[in-house]
Design goal:
Number of domains: 2
Strand order of the largest sheet: 4-7-8-9-10-11
Order of helices and strands: HEHEEHEEEEEHEEEEEH
Structural class: alpha+beta
Distance between the termini: 50 Å
Radius of gyration: 16 Å
CATH class of the largest domain: Alpha Beta
Number of helices: 5
Strand content: 25-35%
CATH architecture of the largest domain: Alpha-Beta Complex
CATH superfamily of the largest domain: tt1808, chain A
């Protein structure tokens, strides 16, 4: 256990709440936890939790998951995961659950048991911010993804209608901030994928 973990475990995952009463936690423990309305993650052996999402955040995540799936599947580019997909980072007892994740097809060979957490960081991670989450909190999560091997992170902010784009090799700040006049780009992670930012935030029932 690190000195930071001993003194201030909340600093490891400022986007979530540390679960009291647990010693060093494993990523596999997360799969055995009860379905109690929380989403659990493990960061450097610390169990943390987040409250369930509201209609706005889950709708946005569903839109992005659906668009990515429709693009990726017929091209056999990889796998798109939902908010149940646990990614265990190599070399660390850290397991994160993006609202939407994606990993490339060639990485499937690295998965020995598909019933266990995915044994690497996603190539693309999408996080949809809740109203109570702050930019510094989700910036910390984006950096954690990138340090674990993720190549592209999209942090979606429903309250302001913009998306922070984080890229590997540029961990200091978002590489781009996209507004409703811009377009999301899969870049070299999902080549050819694009989607208007305005459509991400549009009400599908309007």
């Amino acid at each position: 256990m690190s000195i930071v973990q001993q003194q201030r475990p909340d600093l490891l995952a400022p986007w979530a709440e540390v679960v009291p009463g647990y010693g060093p936690a494993t990523v596999d423990l997360r799969l055995a936890l009860p379905d109690d309305g929380y989403r659990y993650e493990v960061v450097e052996g610390v169990l943390v939790r987040m409250a369930g999402r509201g209609d706005e955040a889950t709708t946005i995540a569903g839109v992005l998951q659906g668009e990515l799936y429709a693009f990726v599947r017929p091209r056999r580019l990889g796998i798109v995961t939902t908010s149940d997909g646990v990614y265990k980072f190599p070399g660390a007892e850290t397991g994160l659950i993006p609202d939407v994740g994606f990993y490339r097809a060639e990485r499937r060979a690295l998965i020995a048991d598909r019933r266990r957490p995915i044994p690497f960081a996603p190539d693309l991670a999408i996080e949809v911010a809740s109203p109570e989450q702050r930019p510094d909190e989700l910036a910390a999560k984006a950096r954690l993804y990138l340090s674990g091997g993720t190549r592209l992170v999209w942090v979606v902010w429903p309250s302001s209608g913009h998306i922070d784009v984080w890229r590997a090799g540029n961990e200091g700040a978002p590489a781009a901030i996209l507004g409703t006049g811009d377009t999301l780009d899969g870049e070299d992670v999902i080549p050819g994928f694009s989607y208007p930012v305005a459509a991400v935030f549009a009400d599908p029932l309007a």
